[in-house]
Specification:
Blueprint (H helix, E strand, L loop, with lengths): L1 H15 L2 E10 L10 E4 L2 E6 L5 E7 L4 E5 L6 E4 L7 E5 L21 H10 L5 H5 L6 E3 L9 E4 L2 E2 L6 E5 L2 E2 L22 E8 L13 E7 L7 E7 L3 E9 L3 H5 L2 E12 L9 E13 L4 E16 L3 E2 H5 L13 E17 L4 E18 L14 E21 L5 E23 L5 E25 L2 E18 L8 E17 L2 E11 L4 H6 L8 E14 L2 E12 L3 E4 L4 E4 L3 E13 L4 E14 L15 E10 L4 E10 L2 E2 L7 E2 L2 E11 L3 E8 L7 E9 L8 E8 L4 E9 L1
Parallel strand pairs: 1-7, 11-14
Antiparallel strand pairs: 1-4, 2-3, 2-5, 5-6, 8-9, 9-10, 11-12, 13-14, 15-16, 15-43, 16-17, 17-18, 18-19, 19-21, 20-42, 21-22, 22-23, 23-24, 24-25, 25-26, 26-27, 27-28, 28-29, 29-30, 30-33, 31-32, 33-34, 34-35, 35-36, 36-39, 37-38, 39-40, 40-43, 41-42
Length: 745
């Protein structure tokens, strides 16, 4: 074995004698921003590398190579003669149409496995809301069940991930998942994100990423907003159900300031809708978002981001199936008209990025959030209190302080061998005041406090992540440590002692790029989702950090010039499931579970204006501690799919036709109640010119009747003598049309 290793090193050394090194940076010609994941190849053959966050790359090429090819999705490819290359290179890329023929599969990093998919989809598929951004993740489905003001319910890889319990969500590297949130552990409200500001996103499935910790069991998704606006924009929208939206994105500094490395913009959004419900939602939402960038010198860049969001709404809630079937109410009717709420979040982010000596990169980020939440709901109606009803209120306010820091070194060697080392540390402090679950009457007066107290929950994490590329191989090894501290000051009962615990999460991933058309990979790792502080303290520190162990075997493949495929077989074991209690509106610790499945995604380009996409996701999810027949995991989606056609003509006409499909799934552990599946089709059409854009968006084109959210709930109606075990549901949007007009300044 030693002899083979020595011979391998000698062969690389000999090959290196006839090599030369080219390096440089790649930028967007329109706004001057560095371009990550640009592929630099040797005249279409041999090794290829990708650019990093600074747009920097370094490539060893044989002296016989006479040209370099540079490509990135959404930009026009370049071919440069080696004889004309100056050191260091400064390459400016022009934006252009998506061309799948120019896509080259190359070793990148463990976090970049799905980068090709994300880049294609963001450039091709129409985006009308923050929810559309989440749906870009293949296999991820959303549901809304309380008037549009609550964070969407998330489904991914056989997980009913509630509002974020099993998927890590971030915006501009700021974590969104709220620990010990009164409505759900890991609650992630993305409604403050203005979709037009998102310029890139990344996602990963499974617990295989050292940079992502708590809640990264099913996977993670991170969105990145623009540092610089290409142009100022004013947009107006109007649609059915008294729906309206106004948006403005305004550059605050001149082009001259941008050339000096300084930029600033502000964006505002106001939205309103009554929805299709008999009891109008009166959903209103206001967002303000601003960002300032300045180059302190040639090495350091400071970014300040400010945002604030507020929303209020009324809700019809979830209605019992029997109430509709018996004709008591319609599909969009209501039982309790006093459901609804209000919420808000204000964020401050300060990020300093520094290019250190040679190939070192450092980032320091501080963030602060002030958050409040007040939500009234009634899922059981009169099951517990036949006089006042069962209406509950969830409320909290919190101050959240956090820091993320990382340092990266990208070491380059001969023959395009490289090692990227990342070291990170982070902390978060959550001070939650008056976390409340109470029983209230129709005047919103408290009849009984079920939970009331203050929570202090702190987290500390550190990780090391190594990516080593040699030839066709990429090896990734990571180790992450997370420590959590829980304190609950119970205002109703004797407070229990605070608790703390840490967990180590190793990761090992291997990727082999056969050629520029085929790449196979194996991902393995351990992750976790933390438990609610109230549960941790009450259970005396037991089962604080349930672990998840997983493995993926997958491939990225270009079997034809204009076809890209990603597919994977996967398995995940979870030490403890969180089970939604529909009667109380809470999450309770459950049994050990396992999930396994198949993910398949394909992107195809018919010609220079027509594209197709399809995602098919299968999952088998079971409780491994329950007896057979009673081991179903409620609401775990066994089969789902999304797909469609998108077109982009050179004359500005563009749009798409897409579908979402979800199969019937068990609503309870013995599969005696079924949550019905659906097939919904959406249509968009745009006419885009340099100075304006006009579009129409149609949801549920064929006006099918479908259920967006469904739960097993034991409820009692006013006319019933005893509670009934039934499906409560929220009807999905019927045919809905919206017109949009935008002006580009």
């Amino acid at each position: 074995m030693k002899i083979i290793f020595i011979l391998l090193l000698i062969s690389f050394h000999v090959a290196g004698l006839s090599q030369r090194i080219v390096h440089g940076n790649i930028f967007d010609k329109t706004n001057g921003e560095p371009l990550q994941y640009a592929v630099i190849s040797q005249g279409g053959r041999g090794n290829a590398v990708t650019s990093d966050k600074d747009g920097y790359f370094q490539l060893s090429i044989p002296t016989s190579v006479d040209s370099l090819n540079i490509s990135i999705i959404g930009y026009r490819p370049l071919s440069l003669a080696v004889s004309e290359i100056k050191k260091p290179m400064v390459v400016q890329m022009n934006r252009g149409p998506v061309d799948l023929q120019s896509v080259t599969i190359t070793p990148q990093s463990n976090n970049a496995t799905f980068q090709t998919l994300s880049a294609i989809d963001l450039h091709i598929r129409p985006i009308n809301s923050a929810q559309d951004l989440m749906r870009l993740v293949p296999g991820l489905f959303l549901g809304q069940h309380h008037g549009g003001g609550i964070a969407e319910h998330i489904f991914l890889r056989g997980f009913d991930a509630d509002h974020g319990t099993d998927i890590n969500v971030s915006v501009d590297d700021m974590p969104l998942n709220l620990v010990s949130q009164i409505h759900g552990q890991g609650y992630s409200d993305l409604h403050f994100l203005i979709p037009e500001l998102v310029t890139s996103y990344e996602f990963g499935k499974g617990p295989y990423y050292a940079e992502h910790g708590d809640f990264t069991t099913a996977g993670y998704v991170g969105f990145h907003t623009a540092d610089i606006l290409d142009k100022s924009t004013v947009k107006m929208e109007a649609g059915q159900f008294n729906t309206g939206r106004a948006l403005a994105m305004i550059n605050l500094l001149s082009d001259k300031a941008k050339q000096k490395g300084e930029s600033a913009y502000i964006s505002g959004e106001a939205a309103y809708t009554d929805g299709p419900f008999d009891w109008p939602q009166h959903l209103s939402r206001l967002n303000l978002f601003g960002k300032y960038n300045v180059n302190l010198d040639t090495k350091d860049k400071l970014t300040i981001t400010l945002s604030t969001y507020s929303s209020k709404w009324r809700s019809s809630g979830e209605i019992p199936s029997r109430a509709v079937e018996e004709g008591l109410i319609g599909r969009f009717g209501y039982i309790d008209s006093l459901q609804g709420g209000y919420t808000g979040r204000t964020n401050i982010i300060a990020k300093l990025t520094s290019s250190l000596a040679n190939t070192w990169y450092m980032q320091n980020q501080f963030y602060y959030s002030w958050y409040h939440f007040n939500h009234r709901y009634n899922d059981t109606f009169f099951a517990e209190d036949s006089i006042n009803g069962d209406r509950l209120r969830q409320a909290e306010s919190r101050n959240l302080y956090g820091y993320n820091g990382k340092i990266i070194n990208h070491a380059y060697f001969k023959n395009s061998i490289d090692l990227t080392s990342s070291f990170g540390i982070g902390l978060q402090v959550n001070k939650i005041n008056n976390s409340e679950l109470s029983h209230i009457n129709d005047k919103f007066e408290v009849l009984d406090y079920l939970e009331l107290g203050n929570i202090n929950e702190n987290t500390l994490n550190a990780y090391v992540d190594e990516n080593f590329r040699i030839g066709h191989w990429l090896f990734n090894a990571g180790l992450r440590m997370d420590g959590l501290y829980f304190n609950y000051e119970d205002k109703l009962n004797l407070s229990m002692p605070s608790r703390s615990k840490y967990i180590l999460s190793p990761k090992l991933n291997v990727e082999y790029t056969v050629n520029s058309f085929l790449q196979i990979y194996m991902k393995t790792g351990k992750g976790f989702h933390s438990n609610d502080a109230r549960v941790v303290v009450a259970n005396q520190g037991q089962e604080i950090l349930p672990a998840a162990d997983g493995i993926d075997l997958g491939l990225n493949w270009k079997p034809a010039a204009h076809l890209f495929i990603n597919a994977a077989l996967w398995y995940l074991y979870l030490q403890q499931e969180f089970v939604y209690n529909g009667d109380e509106g809470t999450l309770d610790p459950g049994d050990k579970t396992r999930r396994e499945g198949i993910d398949f995604s394909a992107r195809y380009q018919f010609n220079n204006w027509l594209y197709a996409f399809i995602d098919i996701n299968y999952a088998y999810a079971r409780d491994i501690q329950a007896p057979k027949g009673s081991n179903y995991i409620p609401l775990a989606v066994p089969l789902s799919s999304a797909g469609g056609l998108n077109y982009k003509f050179p004359n500005g006409i563009n749009g798409g036709l897409s579908y979402r499909y979800m199969k019937n799934r068990p609503a309870n552990t013995d599969n005696s109640l079924i949550a019905k599946g659906y097939f919904v089709t959406d249509l968009t059409a745009f006419y885009t010119k340099k100075k304006f854009e006009f579009s129409i968006e149609i949801q549920n084109l064929f006006n099918v009747k479908w259920r967006e959210e469904q739960f097993e709930v034991v409820s009692r109606l006013k006319n019933e003598t005893s509670p009934v075990d039934d499906i409560n549901y929220t009807s999905g949007t019927p045919f809905f049309a919206k017109l949009v007009f935008a002006i580009f300044l």
